[in-house]
Amino acid sequence: MATPASDVKDLSLADQGRRRIDWALQEMPVLRHLMEQFNAERPLEGVRMSGCLHITTETANLARALIAGGAKLVLTASNPLSTQDDVAAALVQHYDVPTFAIKGESNEVYYQHLHAALDHHPQLTMDDGADLVSVVHKDRRELLPNVIGGTEETTTGVIRLRAMAEDGALQFPVISVNDAMTKHFFDNRYGTGQSTLDGLIRSTNILLAGKTFTVGGYGWCGRGIAMRARGAGANVIVTEVDSLRALEAVMDGYRVMPMIDAAAQSDFIVSATGDKHVIDEAHFRVMKDGCVIANSGHFNVEINIPALEALAVVTRQPRDFVDEYELADGRRLRLIGEGRLVNLAAAEGHPAAVMDMSFANQALGAKYIYTHHGELQKKVYPVPRDIDLEIARFKLAAMGVKLDALSEEQEAYLSSWQEGT
User: Fold this and answer.
1) In whole angstroms, what is the distance from residue 383 CA to residue 371 CA?
2) Is residue 232 exposed (0-12), middle (13-18) or buried (19+ Cβ within 10 Å)?
3) Domain 7-183+351-398 in CATH: superfamily?
4) What is the pLDDT of residues 273-329, one digit of tens each?
5) Above pLDDT 70, what percent of the chain?
6) DSSP per residue over 198-262, as a string?
7) Residue 205: pLDDT above 80?
């Protein structure tokens, strides 16, 4: 079977990409450890893999680990605005990974690239948003007999896959990397928190201190964004539909209210829910002049962009990655990164130290599903707890952190019921 050709912006960027990939690897000790382990054990020898991921320096290092494990890998972007073109070039030129990704590619080209990655006839899929799995099930069903399993990175993707499994549509098992504690607890909270603010600050250069900053959703991503925005001096509002999460936000010291009330007083509004039209026409109609709107969920449907376009009488781009919509009454609403993932559309995504654990989960998840696929049903599985704990141990060791250990007496006490007060 011929290896697919690649489609990247400019191969002359490859050396620059390789330097940045090596820089990121310095902050990824767990993945470095896995590279050595995979190189020695070759757990994915000859396995055809297609990955639909954000093409960043950290993803390139995941690719290096998978190749060290023997995988035959093809990559495509999981978002039209998240690709780092120098990294895509380096993957092709220096690491021999066929790659289909160009920053700013059209929706049509995006789907052409998905199909190109599937022309690899993968045995394992690796997704960030479930687009690859979705296309296989909708348009490339002839590939299904060869697919033995997959992994999924994001909350949004896991929601889609669980819906497929519930409907009986999912045709192979998938490991939910997103459910690993070492992923959602750190990547979603600390990674999204820092990188979302990074995207907002780079694109607008507006001071956050003293501003009213609304976060739509108080899941792990929302918690991280709210925490970092408060740390930058903003007055933070949280909107929620879940009473327990809303209660937690209140107890964490945030104001909680409906989005329609928050929209009227906010300087920044960021959605992070994984749902549709969290920021809608009714909200645009009451927003303050100059309000900055952004999305940290996977898909740009969280913001009703067609409704915003319909309300605007003038559209301009005052800065890179900022679209300013002027309404009939003169108010200007500023949309960042076309409503796509703000941390990747307007910045560089999560810090490498956080992605170190997420991508270690991806690599070990791929190894697990390849080894155990015969025992698994066509549904979504969590990352096995022993993998989660192993990654946490590696990370702590790399940070120079040591733990206590239970004595025999303590272990016996915890496993018995006879001893009381």
Assistant:
1) 14
2) middle
3) Adenosylhomocysteinase-like (3.40.50.1480)
4) 989 999 999 999 999 999 999 999 878 899 999 999 999 999 999 999 999 999 999
5) 99
6) HHHHHHH----TT-EEEEE--SHHHHHHHHHHHHTT-EEEEE-S-HHHHHHHHHTT-EE--HHHH
7) yes
CATH for 192-345 is 3.40.50.720
What's the maximum distance between 2 C-alpha atoms anywhere in the chain? 76
pLDDT value of residue 184: 80
- Cα 390 to Cα 382: distance, rounded to the nearest angstrom: 15
Q: State the amino acid at position 356 in one-letter form.
A: D
Q: How far apart are CA 360 and CA 33, in angstroms?
A: 9
Span 355-405, pLDDT tens digits? 999 999 999 999 999 999 999 999 999 999 999 999 999 999 999 999 999
Token readout for 56 is 């960043």
Tokens encoding 99: 């790659």
With tokens 């073109």, the residue in question is 85
Pair 381, 174: CB distance under 8 Å: yes
What tokens does 81 get? Answer: 């605005």
The 3-state DSSP class for residue 326 equals strand
Q: What is the pTM of this model?
A: 0.85
Domain boundaries, given as residue ranges, for the chain: 7-183+351-398, 192-345
Q: What is the mean pLDDT of residues 149-159?
A: 91
Closest CA to 248 of 212, 217, 284: 217
Domains 7-183+351-398 and 192-345 equal at CATH topology level: yes
* 63: DSSP letter: H
- Do 4 and 117 form a contact (C-beta atoms < 8 A)? yes
Give the pLDDT score at 155: 83
